[in-house]
Amino acid sequence: MEDRKLAEDGARRAANYEKIKDEVKSDVGGEIAAEADKPTDSEISREKDIARDMRGKAIEEVEQTEREVERGRAAARFAQVVDYVFYLIYGFLGIRLLLELLAARDSAKFVQWIKSITGVFYWPFEGIVRSPSVEGHTLALPIIVALVSYLLLHFAIIGLLRMIAHRKTVI
After folding, report:
1. What is the spatial distance between Cα 146 and Cα 29, in angstroms, rounded to a whole number?
2. Per-residue DSSP letters for the chain?
3. Rounded (5°) CA angle 141-150-102
4. Could you tell me if 91 and 97 are in contact, meaning their C-beta atoms sit under 8 angstroms apart?
5. What is the maximum alpha-carbon separation in the chain?
6. Phi, psi at residue 133, to the nearest 5°?
7. Which burial class, exposed, middle or buried, applies to 118 when counting CB atoms under 10 A from its CB (0-12, 13-18, 19+)?
8. Proportion of the chain above pLDDT 70, given as a percent
9. Do 65 and 98 touch, CB atoms closer than 8 A?
10. What is the pLDDT of residues 35-48, one digit of tens each?
């Protein structure tokens, strides 16, 4: 019987030992985990340096974007003015071509006015090719050449402005 009491007492002590051992492991593991979660002073300093660098880069990017947006706005406004000027040239040269096709009288004030306005834009192309005539109606081919030339110049200027206005991408 004493052997049995002794065995029960040994089993109880072994169970208590395992229980205490598990508690100590749990406490020590918790302390280690708590210490592992705490950043060191050098880690805190490094995190602050990284945050400062990222903040600086973000501010620089915003400033650069603002400059690019302003440059784009200025280029867009200038492109609108260029478009307007070229549309006026196209319109006046188109009216002059139509008046030539309809054989309008040169003595009419409107014809004189249109010719005076378009003269500056038309003179480089005058006589560049012959203009066929049928019964007094003339197809003024130099005016068509002028229109095509101004159209190409217009596209070139607008293309240049688009290159200036678009944001540059750096990889």
Report:
1. 88
2. -HHHHHHHHHHHHHHHHHHHHHHHHHHHHHHHHHHHHSPPHHHHHHHHHHHHHHHHHHHHHHHHHHHHHHHHHHHHHHHHHHHHHHHHHHHHHHHHHHHHHTT--TTSHHHHHHHHHHHHHHGGGTTSS---EETTEE--HHHHHHHHHHHHHHHHHHHHHHHHHSPP---
3. 35
4. no
5. 145
6. -125, 145
7. buried
8. 90
9. no
10. 666 777 787 888 88
Tally Cβ neighbours within 10 Å of residue 115. 16
Q: Which token pair is 13?
A: 């002590």
pLDDT in tens, 134-145: 777 778 899 999
Total residues belonging to the chain: 171
> Which pLDDT tens digit goes with each residue over 69-91?
888 888 888 889 999 999 999 99
166: CB partners within 8 A, 6+ apart: 72
- Two tokens at 143? 């005016």
